[in-house]
Amino acid sequence: MRAANSVGKVTNVVLAGLGGQGVIKASDILADAALRAGLDVKKAEVHGMSQRGGSVTSDVRFGGKVLSPMVPRGEADFLVVLAPSEVEVARAVLRPGGVLLSPDLVPEASLPNKRSLNVALLGALSQYLDLPVEALLDAVRAALPERLHEVNVRAFELGRTLAAQQVKMP
Amino acid sequence: MDRQLLSGDEAVALAALHADVALGTGYPGTPSTEILETFSELGGRAQWAPNEKVALEVGLGAAYGNVRALVTMKHVGLNVAADPLFTAAYTGVNGALIVITADDPGMSSSQNEQDNRRYAIAAGLPMIEPADSQEAYDFFFTAVEISERWKIPVLYRMTTRVCHSKSIVVARSADGGAGIGGAASAHAPHFEHDITGRVMIPANARPAHRRLRAKLAEIAAWGESPEAAALNRVEPGSGGHSLGLIASGVSCLHAAEAAPGATILRIGLVNPLPVERARAFAASVERVVVVEEGDPVIADSLRAAGIALESKPEMYRFGELDVARVRRILAGDTSPEPAPARGKPPELCPACPYHTVYGTLRKHDCIVAGDIGCYTLGVLPPYEAMDTCVAMGASIGVGLGLRHVLPPAEARRVVSVIGDSTFVHSGISGLVEMAYNPPATGHVVLVLDNGTTAMTGQQEHAGTGRTLDHLPTNKLSIEGVATAVGIGSVTVIDPYADPEGFERLLLERLAAPELSVIVARRPCVLAAADIRKWEQQAADLRARAALQAAFDMPPEER
Lengths: 170, 558
Prior knowledge:
B: 558 residues, alpha/beta
């Protein structure tokens, strides 16, 4: 039985960037965190050409009950962008009042490793999400080899701190 | 039982493992590739075939041998496999044969968006279509049951969004898998002669066709019955009986989200369709709309059965559906859609060894008959050095056709460009044609051998000399094949290390009225490190085997 209220509140996140930046890795981590938090979750992306440096987007939806795996255009609550060139390309997915997290939030020089921008932006996103931080950190560790744990946990904390400062700003 | 977040491809692989599939075979193709890779990682026996036709034939032989077999391919692969498919429908199988066709509506990574539900109708085979990863897992067992009960191959249609989207799967208990459709001994391998059933000379094929249609009629009746309730089911909405939707595959989910109040008839058995259930469903609601991606297969079939319904406007035949498009369909909105975001297109990797090749082809204004692979990206700026791309292996035949008819000055500029995996897939018969019917100006085939099936994520093929799980096996020699079929000039060159030499060679071969194959060999930059690792692993294995042999041999044979 599919009652209207069983759809529940679904959080829609779209991650965007270029092939090789770890967009899909980041969306895997976010989806895994939602799974760990006991929520229903779906994620969708188109790969195939993604290794060839082109635009990549990945949709993650979680909540009580998720139906379509794709975030409808104009309904994303959050848009996380890893490449400056992709901000305008992807902007149309955001709903009015949706939150954009763009790469300039995390200055490259402040990153412990420039390849961990994806995890840093997940840390920033975590400020806005109703997901336990521990579930996200567990998902980060589960997705990466152990030698990368420390640097990525630091990147996550950095993003989380930077976003907290931004949230406080008027 | 644990909840797992799996892609549809991974879910099918897990189901195949739990259903005791004895052999999985196929050819890589987005979005199907990960099925066999995952099946292998999970411990299943999986192998790449040179192409989909051979894969289907190997799977068919295994299923004649009473086991459960799985064959995977992308939608266009089924075109290649169609010849054995249509007659396998007549012979049927002893064990189970599940053929996965992964369609790509919207062409995220394909040359067309053909709707392979048409194949089920044309071949007369049952076809099952899941909507998400849980159904991809669950329905696989039903596919095996149908295949074994009616001794018939079953087509299993997935689409890009089902293959590559991840959603939660709760698997059957691990020991439950071996039991489906009876004890494991029921599908133990053995062979029984059945000449009239499997040798399709006309005298045997005539009754076989009648048997097939009788099976389909039985499956159709089954599909209408409560036994098929998991596949074909009505999902009541909150809005009573005002709106009813008929949907299959991922469209079921878009429909449920776009119209929360609607009652939905979800069709998991897309051939034969549950026509009477659909008739009763249509009669139970005030308005009925078919929501399906691609061709209007369900809508046309139900209309032909006399059921009044609405279907999507023609503009929604093109591309994928999503929630927004389903809303528009339900509103009858045919106004222009917002343009899709235009991001950065993919391109040849910066360190791809083929920049030189395309630069040279462009510089000399070659007429390039191209082929399917990441090297097709040579068509994009800055090179724009490809003039045709149609089907796997087509570069050679198309190049030859151009050579035959163009005036000599133009004909001499024609080059066929094909990758190594594509060459193995279906380039070899093109070379045979080239040797058999040589154009007056000769011809040049350029094989871009980067040592992997790069496009789909670096899979092995017969030319790499390694199996699906990267273990050493016999290695096909591209230059050896070219020589054997009668190509006079066969040269191997590294175009990255020696760009001037490559240019000289190409110009020389274009000027000569001879048949030439140039193998431009340099490992894919993305695969090179892995290839070195597997070569080392192979060397270690050989050394260990030699040592083992030395110790195991009786002393007198040492």
